[in-house]
Amino acid sequence: MVPVLDPQTPPGRVLDEKYWLQFSDNPNPSTREKMMFVTVDDVARIGPNSFNAVTMCTEVGVSDGLLNFHFGSRNELLAETLVWVYTRFVNDVAQAVEAAKPEAEARLRAWITAVHQGFITMGGWGVLVNYPVASREVAYLTEKQHGDEVVDQAEINLALLLHLVADVRKKRVTEFTLELGKIPKTYFIKNPALTSLTVSIALSTSGLAVWHGGRSQGQAKREGSTLDRMVTKSHIDRIIKSI
């Protein structure tokens, strides 16, 4: 039996002001931004390998020649959009922590939950984040053209987690003051035991995120059962108790 795959262009999608406001506070983004935003949506639903850049251009209402003009190639479009997706993910996690109840465990739980939810939202982009070998050219272009930016985002996210873990261990709540791209080189090595614990928590959270991430919308709906939610909550509880 031939599987029925989700179409790249979902039925009923309307590229109006409401649609664009999902991605920024500008209801009328530039053509270049529109191409990126539709790519964000398409890859999240169908994954990078099934993504057709010409289909995206048709949906936006531009010629495929603009793909090369604005980005250079399909894979360069994916590489740049991947950085946008990952940056938004890191920012969303930080905002979730900031919005949490001002208690150490509540803030750490907010970080873990936001990472978990972020990968569900990320969908097919999670393949490129977690398994770059799945698209070697996109991975190469991401590192070559945006490597420093990705490292900065990853480091600020890990630094925030380390800060939250330290707060839980000392039963306190302190402000996180490090800035993107300005993390001291000694930050992760001055307390090896704390860093090791933090990385373990990050890996445990990543495992949970990968388990849920990358599902189609239909799969997510079918698998979002009471048992599924219970297992997720239990896993997060165990992570926090391990500290």
Task: Classify the helix fraction into a percent range.
Answer: 55-70%
Give the class-level CATH name of the largest domain.
Mainly Alpha
Radius of gyration: 19 Å
Terminal-residue CA separation: 49 Å
Low-confidence spans: pLDDT under 50, at least 5 residues? none
Series of H and E elements: HHHHHHHHHHH
The count of strands amounts to: 0
Mean pLDDT: 91
Structural class: mainly alpha
Described by strand count, sense and barrel closure, the largest sheet is: none
Q: Which overall shape is indicated by the principal axes computed on the Cα atoms?
A: globular
CATH architecture of the largest domain: Orthogonal Bundle
> How large is the count of helical segments?
11
Strand share of the residues? Answer: under 5%
Count of spatially separate domains: 2
CATH T-level fold name of the largest domain:
Tetracycline Repressor, domain 2
Brief overview:
The protein is mainly alpha-helical and 243 residues long. It has helices at residues 17-20, 31-46, 53-60, 65-70, 74-99, 104-122, 125-130, 136-170, 192-212, 217-223, 226-241. The chain folds into two domains: 1-72, no CATH class; 77-241, Tetracycline Repressor, domain 2.
